[in-house]
Specification:
It is built from eleven helices and twelve strands. The protein is α+β, with helices and mostly antiparallel strands and about 270 residues long.
C-alpha cells in the first residue's frame, strides 16, 4: 500500500486552520494577510502554493474558496453556488430561472445562476458554472427572503417576487411559456395579495400586462384579482419580447402584441 501525503508548510497550515476555525468559507488576500501578519508578496506566495495543492480555489481576483480538512488529502472540494454567492456579496438575492427551480415551480435545472444586485458586478465562471449578476434599480430591489442550505443561509426572491422578476426579464427566465407553466405550478403556494402589492410596487406596466394576460388565460382571475390587474392600458407591448417578433393578434384588454400562441402557452397542461 502506498500512502499519499502532501506537505504543508507552517504558514500554509496556519492560514488553513485559522480560516477553518473561523468558519470562513470564502476569504480574501486581506483576510489572509491578517492571519499571517506578513507582506503582500509573502501572502500571495502562500496562497499560490495552496492553490497548487488544491487547498484553495480562486473564485475571482483576490477571492478564494477554502478547501477544508474534511476534503481529504487530495483537497478536492466543491460548495453549492448559493453558499459561495452569500460569502461573496452582501446585497443580493437569487432570482429568475434559478429561483423558479429553487421553489419547485419548474423541473428545469438552469446552467446559469442568476443573481440580482444593485451595483454592477462582473459575471463569474466558477467550477464550470456561470454566475450572472443582473443589475436592477433600487426600486426593483425588494421581495427577497432567506432560505437555509445546510449550515448556511442565502437570499432568494420570494415566490411572488420571482414571478414579477421573471415577467420583467423573460430572457433570464425561459421565456413567457416557461413563466406561464411556473405560475400555474405555484398557484396553490402564491399569496395573491402579496403578488398584487409587489406588482404595484414594481411599477413596470409591461409586467402588469403580462401577469394579467397569463392569469386570465390560466383561469386564475377572480373578481378581486381582475379589479387590481386591469387598467386602461395605452398602446401595446410584446407578450414575449425574447421570442420571435411576429404578431399573431392584438389583445386590446391587456394592451399586448401576442406573439406566442395560446396553444404554446398551455401545452404544458397536456404533456
Amino acid at each position: 500500500m502506498v500512502t499519499k501525503s502532501i506537505y504543508l508548510g507552517p504558514m500554509e497550515n496556519k492560514l488553513l486552520f485559522t480560516l477553518e476555525e473561523q468558519d470562513r468559507l470564502v476569504f480574501t488576500i486581506a483576510d489572509a494577510k491578517k492571519v499571517l501578519a506578513s507582506s503582500d508578496s509573502s501572502v500571495k506566495n502562500v496562497i499560490y502554493r495552496l492553490k497548487q495543492k488544491n487547498r484553495v480555489k480562486e473564485i475571482e481576483t483576490g477571492k478564494y474558496l477554502l478547501s477544508p480538512a474534511k476534503a481529504g488529502i487530495d483537497g478536492h472540494w466543491s460548495e453549492h453556488t448559493f453558499k459561495i454567492i452569500h460569502s461573496l456579496i452582501d446585497e443580493y438575492y437569487v432570482s429568475y430561472w434559478s429561483a423558479l427551480n429553487h421553489w419547485g415551480m419548474t423541473e428545469q435545472m438552469p446552467v446559469t445562476v442568476y443573481v440580482v444586485i444593485k451595483k454592477r458586478k462582473r459575471d463569474i465562471r466558477f467550477d464550470g458554472q456561470l454566475i450572472k449578476f443582473v443589475t436592477v434599480s433600487p426600486g426593483k430591489f425588494f421581495g427577497s427572503t432567506q432560505e437555509k442550505l445546510g449550515d448556511c443561509r442565502f437570499n432568494v426572491a420570494s415566490r411572488e417576487k420571482t414571478i414579477i422578476d421573471c415577467l420583467d426579464r423573460l430572457e433570464y427566465s425561459g421565456g413567457i411559456v416557461e413563466v406561464a407553466k411556473c405560475l400555474w405550478n405555484a398557484r396553490d403556494e402564491l399569496d395573491f395579495d402579496t403578488l398584487a402589492g409587489y406588482t404595484m410596487r414594481f411599477q413596470v406596466e409591461s409586467v402588469w400586462r403580462r401577469l394579467g394576460f397569463l392569469m386570465e388565460l390560466l383561469g386564475m382571475c377572480d373578481d378581486k384579482t381582475e379589479k387590481w390587474l386591469y387598467k386602461d392600458f395605452k398602446g401595446y407591448r410584446w407578450l414575449d419580447y425574447s421570442a420571435r417578433k411576429e404578431t399573431i393578434r392584438y389583445d386590446k384588454k391587456w394592451g399586448l402584441k401576442i406573439n406566442v400562441s395560446e396553444k404554446e402557452l398551455l401545452e404544458f397542461k397536456w404533456v
